[in-house]
Design goal:
Elements lengths: L1 E11 L2 H10 L9 E5 L3 E7 L3 H6 L7 E10 L7 E11 H13 L4
Antiparallel strand pairs: 1-5, 2-3, 3-4, 4-5
Length: 109
């Protein structure tokens, strides 16, 4: 079952650097996700989580997608510069736990 995601976390550094880094090598909690869209300040990832049962029942025509949208903006009032990452979408609990752990490990010290 998918969990709705509406969260944010802060990373040290400028937004543009994080977007470039995530384009080149997405964080490990996005394993199984593929980048499907982007803007100057956001990246969108999708994962096809259609079960084999659903494929059989729907004769291969059904598709279940989990989508996560990440927006990267400068964190206001931070010195040194920091980036606030806002996440919206759906993800399985395992991915949410992994994202939470990753964000904690990469938070500004």
């Amino acid at each position: 079952m998918a969990d709705e995601v509406n969260a944010s976390f802060v990373l040290p550094g400028e937004p543009a650097a994080h977007i470039a880094e995530w384009r080149a090598t997405p964080p490990p909690f996005l394993d199984g996700y593929k980048r499907t869209d982007e803007t100057y300040e956001a990246l969108v990832y999708e994962s096809n989580v259609t079960t084999a049962f659903m494929k059989v029942v729907m004769f291969g025509f059904a598709k279940t997608l989990y989508r996560l949208s990440f927006t990267f903006r400068a964190a206001e009032g931070s010195d040194p510069p920091a980036t606030r990452v806002t996440v919206l979408g759906q993800a399985p609990e395992k991915a949410l736990a992994s994202m939470s752990q990753w964000a904690t490990e990469h938070a500004p010290g």
